[in-house]
Design a protein that fits this description.
- It contains seven helices and seven strands; from the N terminus they run H-H-H-H-H-H-H-E-E-E-E-E-E-E.
- It is an alpha+beta fold.
Length: 317
Amino acid sequence: MSDQKTYDAMTSATLILAVDAARVAGDPFKFTTTFAALGTSRLSDCVTANAAAEFAASDTTGAGQRIGQAVERLAALARNVFNFIGSVDDETLPDADRAQVYAAYLFPGGELGNLRDKDRVISIAQKISAIAASPPPDLPAAGLAPAATVARVNNWLAIYNGNVGIANGGTRETLIDARNTARDTLEDWNARARRTYTSATDDGEYTKELKKINMQPRRMPGKAQPEPLPGAPGAVTYDSATRTLTITGGLPQHATSAVAYRQPAGGTPVEAGVSIDGTVSLVQFEPLDPTVSYSAWIEPANSRGHGPKSNVINFTA
């Protein structure tokens, strides 16, 4: 069962950090490096804990089946990455560079190796995910795994990670407790972020900067009117390789952010990501389940609320 409070906390923290990243040095509302790093860490912990709880099966048997399915698919994706590296022409990826890429993805000597070894398959999948998240600067870009393949690896890794504890005798309740703890600490950071804004200048709770992080400032009686809700977004398109939605023409009038939603077939819609421009990730808060069909859309937002829902995109992960 999805926890709305968790998605709300992740959406708020992601927006707060995105706004802060765009602030320049000397801006009185810019966070200290330490406080921003704390928010980033807590958000990451919450995203990880939430994904584990969402993808977990209800019992040991179900978890074992999901793990077997995940390992099988990850082995096929590892083979795809191996074949991709070998398919790049010699002029684009010389032999020495190709050998370096093979080694980085745990294919030493340019050999595929045993993909029936579960632990090895998981190690390769984790390496594919890690390199995509933070590419080593000395690793030849021409040999990096394609974004669409990385997205699928992340999807199946989430299913594996969410079920391995239960398959080994753990319970889903333990994962839910871990998610709730991570959510609560993230909510604490969000509240501290608001206090940081209100203590930055003499405007205190009346500062209009709060609107940038979709929080309502206080208004002096009779001196200010609430801002309008965001206008309707332009047509939204879907990029299957990057798992992103984009509003044609960017944010509509009065919007300060764009919130993406995704809904599994027969399930409940949840926030999938948020941005301060017109492009939003559908996997910002958790990977997609490769066995599920989804509907997705964007709602422009500001401190007053959400504007009209965009056109709906239907796809299968």
